[in-house]
Every structure is written in structure tokens, then in C-alpha cells.
Amino acid sequence: MDEPRRGRLYVVATPLGNAGDLSPRAREILSAADLVLAEDTRRAGLLFKRLGIGAKRYMSFFEHNEEGRVTQVLAELDQGHDVALVSDAGTPLLSDPGYRLVRACREQGHAVSPVPGPSAPVAALSASGLPPYPFVFLGFLPRRDVDVRRLFEEYGATKATLVFFERKNRLTATLELAAETLGDREFCVARELTKEHEQFILGRLSKREDVQLDLLGELTVIVGPPAEELRTSEAEMAAVLEEEVLRGGRPKEVARRTAERVCGWTAKAVYERLMDKSG
């Protein structure tokens, strides 16, 4: 006797802004799905209407209810229903809920299939002109400065390109923290990807005040790797440090000012040199 059919979970990428980026396969999967999981079911309904996909059965699925929804979704799959997981835009799981569900499906023997497509981190990298690999995707940054600084210190040490999402009201402060923690690097702010007002703003962390950072819309930020060939020698850095010491200020402030005047030195590294000298 044949076993009853079990449903499949599809992880479906949806357009970032341009509806033409939905793949034919994604359209087919979404049209056929018995249930659609979405962070915002109203927004998903409007998207599907714009895409010409008929009425669907939706279930809200976001960070604070994901754990409770897993059992319900597994029950749907057990009944042979195919389920599609979408985010508000782009590829699910990248800074969006879904990891726990995918893991539970794997553990319970349910098939999980990706339906790839638009991804803001990849789209931004592809058109930024900054080194695309290796790169580390940090998602949305923490809200506390101390946590952002710790994250930059940890992953900045890998010398990889860093990619993250940031809120418009925190962009200036975050780039200042990046300059203090990572030293002078190239950066790119990708705004409103694939939309009418798409924009790529390029600059250096040491000269971030030269670019317009009062921006609207969705922001993806890329900070390039350190340019080793431009690294200021230790002797030159020491000379700049001496000048900043004479200007006065607390050691950490002196280190920050020094790091912004040289290449390849983080404020932390300069501070350590300053403390070694003081000791």
C-alpha cells in the first residue's frame, strides 16, 4: 500500500522591488502552494495581487511567533500540503525568520526545496565595485553601539568584505563606529535596490562626511576589506599618534583620531600601541 503523500516546504525568493525579477519557477510554486507563510500577510497579499497570483491561504510567520508556528506547519506537511515560505522581499532566512522551521522539517524528514532569486546582499555586492569575496553577511546590526563595535572587531579581523542591513536613522553612527573599529576602508551604501530610485553611494570611511548619508528607503551597506598595500607604516603611524597626543584628550579619543588619519590601523590597534608606550 502506498504511503500518503507528504508535503514539501519551498523557500521562495520574491522581488526586492521590481516585480519582473520573480522567476517563472517561483511564480509556479507560489501559485500551486496550499499555504503561504509570510511575515506580513497583508503585504504578501498585495504582492501576489500585483504579480497576478490568485487568492491564497496565508499564515503569519515572523520572529516572535516562529517557534509556535513550527508544529502547525509540520501538521500541514503531514497532511500532504505544500507550503511556501516568503519574506517581505528577497530571500527568506537572511535576517528573516525560517531557520527553525527548515531545521525542524529536516529533522522530521520533510523535503525542503529552495526557489532562489533576488537577494539584497548579493545584488548590492554585484554592483558595488567592492571586492565580492570572501564576504561575511552580518544581517541587521545590533541596536547597542557596544554590540556593533564587538561585531565589527570580531569579523573585521577576518579581513573579509562585510555586508549588513542598517536603518536610515543609524547609518551615520554606524559608519563612524566602523571607521573607529575597522580603520579606513572603502564602503558602499546601496539604496532601494531594483526600485525606481536605486542608488549606490561610494566613499571611504575616513571621508564619510564627503558623501550624502541622509537617505530614505531600504539600505544595504558594504564595507570593503582593508587595503594592505595602503597600510601606513608603524613609524608613520607613531608620528601621527605623537601629534594627536599633543592635541590632548582621553587615550581612546586620541587613538580614534589617529586611526582616522592613517590607513590600515584600527582605533583598537592604535590604542594598544599607546597603552604599551605609556606602560
TrEMBL record:
Keywords: Cytoplasm, Methyltransferase, rRNA processing, S-adenosyl-L-methionine, Transferase. It comes from the Bacteria. The keyword Transferase applies. Its EC number is 2.1.1.198. One of its GO terms (molecular function) is rRNA (cytosine-2'-O-)-methyltransferase activity. Its main location: cytoplasm. Residues 8-206 form the Tetrapyrrole methylase domain. GO terms for cellular component: cytoplasm. It holds the Pfam family TP_methylase. It catalyses: cytidine(1402) in 16S rRNA + S-adenosyl-L-methionine = 2'-O-methylcytidine(1402) in 16S rRNA + S-adenosyl-L-homocysteine + H(+). InterPro entries: 4pyrrol_Mease, 4pyrrol_Methylase_sf, 4pyrrole_Mease_sub1, 4pyrrole_Mease_sub2, rRNA_ssu_MeTfrase_I, SAM_MeTrfase_RsmI_CS. It is found in: Cytoplasm. It is an enzyme of class 2 (transferase). NCBIfam families: 16S rRNA (cytidine(1402)-2'-O)-methyltransferase. Belongs to the methyltransferase superfamily. RsmI family. Catalyzes the 2'-O-methylation of the ribose of cytidine 1402 (C1402) in 16S rRNA. This is Ribosomal RNA small subunit methyltransferase I. It comes from Desulfocurvibacter africanus subsp. africanus str. Walvis Bay.
